[in-house]
Specification:
Distance between the termini: 40 Å
Largest sheet: 7 strands, mixed
Radius of gyration: 13 Å
Number of strands: 11
Shape: globular
Oligomer: single chain
Strand content: over 45%
Number of helices: 0
Length: 116
C-alpha cells in the first residue's frame, strides 16, 4: 500500500526548532520530486521547500530561506524538513508531497504551532 507518513510536528516556542519526517512506504521515492507545503488556518496552501528527484536541486520559499533545510535519506525512503529559528508565522499544517509525471502522493499533514 502506497503511503506517506508524516511525523515531528508539535508545539514549539519562537526561536525553537523542529524536524519533520515523511516516510514513504509501498514505493521507492528516489525517482520522485519531494516537496513540503504548509497551510496556515484560513489561508491557501503554499510551497515551503522542494528537492528534485535523486536529490538534484532545492527550492525554498523566501520566508524560510536560511532557516529551513530539506533533505532526503534514500536508505530510509524518508524526506526531512529541519526547521530552525521558528516564528509564529510558521504555524500551519505541513504536508509532504512526492510526485513524478506518473504519480502524485500526499501525506496526511502534521500540525506545527509556534507560540510562547
Amino acid at each position: 500500500q502506497v503511503q506517506l507518513v508524516e511525523s515531528g510536528g508539535g508545539l514549539v516556542q519562537p526561536g525553537g526548532s523542529l524536524r519533520l519526517s515523511c516516510a514513504a512506504t509501498g514505493f521507492t521515492s528516489n525517482d520522485y520530486d519531494k516537496t513540503w507545503y504548509r497551510q496556515p488556518r484560513g489561508k491557501e496552501r503554499e510551497l515551503v521547500a522542494s528537492i528534485g528527484r535523486l536529490g538534484r536541486g532545492t527550492i525554498y520559499a523566501d520566508s524560510v530561506k536560511g532557516r529551513f533545510t530539506i533533505s532526503v535519506d534514500s536508505a530510509k525512503n524518508t524526506v526531512y524538513l529541519q526547521m530552525n529559528s521558528l516564528k509564529p508565522e510558521d504555524t500551519a499544517v505541513y504536508y509532504c508531497n512526492v510526485r513524478n509525471p506518473y504519480a502524485d502522493y500526499w501525506g496526511q499533514g502534521t500540525q506545527v504551532t509556534v507560540s510562547s
